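From the shared-data thread, chain only:
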Amino acid sequence: MSDLTHLDKSGAASMVDVGGKAVTTREAVAQGLISMTPETLALALSGDAKKGSVRAAAEFAGIMAAKRTSELIPLCHQIPLSSVKLVIEADEKNSALIVTARARTNGQTGVEMEALVAVSVACLTIYDMLKAADRAMVIGGVMLLEKRGGKSGDYIRG
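Structure, as tokens:
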């Protein structure tokens, strides 16, 4: 357990003290997807879904979720985000929407969780917007693609 930063020596939950860390620019990119029927994908792309623009709602939801990450994930620091951007692209071959989030901060801890939460909530919002047309949609593949900055250095998924 010594490698886990959110547990103390006795195994109790502990918020990491980042007070001594340098303030640096940090960025993280996460991605996920939601698979659906071709008809549902066409509906999502048309902008004519019953509840409105699927992409716009998911983009707003993802950004809002990133800003509230510390309220959703225990022991996660509240950090000042300088930017959160979501891109939602169609993968017509696989009948899916691919959601990518990029989060940035100038702070003492990383923004990986903010990017991952943004992707997750955007995918959930897409599901909610389209569930009347397709309850068999599948959310998956949520992952960190890259992380930059901080003491541990850069990470890029291989």
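The longest strand covers residues 24-35.
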